[in-house]
Amino acid sequence: MSGEDAAPAQQQNAVDQKQETKPAEEPKSEPAKTEAEAFTYRALVLTGYGGYDKVKLQVKKGKPALKAGEVQVRVKTCGLNFADLMARQGLYDRMPSPPVTPGMECAGVVEAVGEEVTDRKVGDRVMVLNRFGLWQEVVVSLADHTFLIPDGMSFEEAAAFPVNYITAYMMLFDFGHLRPNQNVLIHAAAGGVGTAATQLCKTVNDVTVFGTASAPKHEALTEAGVTHPIDYRSKDYVEEVRKISPKGCDIVLDPLGGSDTHKGYNLLKPMGKLITYGASNMLAGQKKNLIAVAKNWYHQFSIHTLSLIQGNKSVCGYHLGYLDGETELITQTMNTLLDLYKQGKVKPRIDSTWHLEQVGDAMRKMQERNNVGKIILTTEPMPEEEKKEETKKEDKKRTRRKKTRRRTTRRRTMPRKRRKRKMRKRRRKRRRRRRRRKRRKRRRKRRRSLRKRRNEGLWVVEFLSWERGRGLVWCGGGRVHFLEVMYGIF
Ligand SMILES: NC(=O)c1ccc[n+]([C@@H]2O[C@H](COP(=O)([O-])OP(=O)(O)OC[C@H]3O[C@@H](n4cnc5c(N)ncnc54)[C@H](OP(=O)(O)O)[C@@H]3O)[C@@H](O)[C@H]2O)c1
């Protein structure tokens, strides 16, 4: 797959579409629009970095151009990935800056094929994998970015398959070289990659899986095949693993980053492998949290090769987004995975399906750590009733926002004089407090110096007591005041 080729193709399309979405200033005498010009389709667009509302549903105009080696797909379902949350906050470097259509995977039906495409035909059910640009009703993609959907696999399952299963497979088998009787630590074991990794571990005999997840998901984890579910929020997962396996783990999959990477490395047995593949810890809240980002960078794991040698450990980094040039490797992995699917050994778990209009709610569900399995977006039009409910909800939110805005502006503008008076009072109080503090400090300092002098005096007096009453007494830098000597303070 040559993602570098595909990305410009998507970008070109985006540029074409941007040009075509400009308001048309056609004179009345112009001929009627051609079929290609009248072609419209809905697309989700990231309009800027920030909260859930930054992803908007828009209508794109004009049929996307189809070049040699490309296919046009009518999209049915799309997969939501953790990277989409990071991209929305501007924390994902494999997506161009907004406005851009996100989406790394989707499933649908081939609608048209370009020249030189021999292995795809109109009507084929396919899943598509790309760096971005797949959250829309119509997608143009390189044919070798598409994979045929096996019989019996639904469009939901197909959209949940590529990113999660390729990632989990390559980490466990290409890097991890997973073998029978080994044990693996999987973080976010109830999530998309986590579920895929657990299922793949079960394809090898007697593999013990430690899986961390929020407590309400533990039943699902046990069902999925996690041997020891761990609630990382209330317990120290390192201790929990050590209780069961004092030597540690053979493989640790680390999507968290920061200090968790250190913990993962320390948990490895000799000859163990740490595979780091994400930085979930960077995400804290709806918008970019600079403290969480800085904390993650500050605790970034780094190691000297000598320590690796002495530790008999291995550290690997994995990023599917940077493998987009490795068409053959990805296709091979996909073929192996699709065979496993056909044998019934792996099956994507779908958490929930959302309409394109509900993308914000879908993202919220993942970000609030409430998903068990994969979250899917469907391009099916939303039923009118649901739409009405959605608009009602939106209106409610908008009025609530307006009210709070009004309240804050009222607070800001109304009692101006009173506010000024308050501020002045506050300033005066602060000044007084500062003065008091200074005074106290000075007093303390004076008392300390007096005590010091007294002590020195005591020491002096011990040896030179016959000098009492003679004024100043000097000895080794210690000075006793005449009056203090007179009145026998010491
Ligand atoms: N390198 C790659 O090529 C690649 C490819 C795919 C995914 N990934 C990485 O794999 C991880 C999982 O991705 P996914 O798409 O399968 O998503 P996911 O696991 O479904 O993500 C959501 C789950 O992650 C857990 N989580 C941990 N820290 C979180 C945080 N700060 N905010 C919100 N949720 C958090 C939560 O579950 P619990 O509370 O139950 O833990 C949440 O339910 C992500 O870090 C992603 O970046 C990497």
From TrEMBL:
Biased composition, class Basic and acidic residues, residue ranges:
17-34, 384-397
Q: Which residues cross the membrane?
A: none
Gene3D superfamilies the UniProt entry points to: Medium-chain alcohol dehydrogenases, catalytic domain, NAD(P)-binding Rossmann-like Domain
The organism's superkingdom is given as Eukaryota
* Alphabetic keyword roster: Oxidoreductase
Is Oxidoreductase included in the keywords of this UniProt record? yes
- Describe the location of the Enoyl reductase (ER) domain by residue ranges: 50-377
The answer to keyword Methyltransferase applying to this record is no
Q: Which InterPro entries does the UniProt entry name for this protein?
A: ADH-like_N (IPR013154), ER (IPR020843), GroES-like_sf (IPR011032), NAD(P)-bd_dom_sf (IPR036291), Quin_OxRdtase/zeta-crystal_CS (IPR002364), SV-ATPase_mito-regulator (IPR052100)
> What Pfam families does this protein's entry cite?
ADH_N, ADH_zinc_N_2
Basic residues composition bias: residue spans: 398-451
A GO molecular function term, named singly, is:
oxidoreductase activity
What cellular-component terms does GO give this entry?
mitochondrial outer membrane
Region (Disordered) spans which residues?
A: 1-34, 365-451
Extract one GO BP annotation from the record.
Answer: negative regulation of mitochondrial fusion
The record's section on PROSITE patterns has: QOR_ZETA_CRYSTAL
PANTHER family membership: SYNAPTIC VESICLE MEMBRANE PROTEIN VAT-1 HOMOLOG (PTHR44054:SF1), SYNAPTIC VESICLE MEMBRANE PROTEIN VAT-1 HOMOLOG-LIKE (PTHR44054)
Q: Which family does it belong to?
A: Belongs to the zinc-containing alcohol dehydrogenase family. Quinone oxidoreductase subfamily.
Listed name of the protein: Vesicle amine transport 1
Q: Which organism is it from?
A: Neogobius melanostomus (round goby)
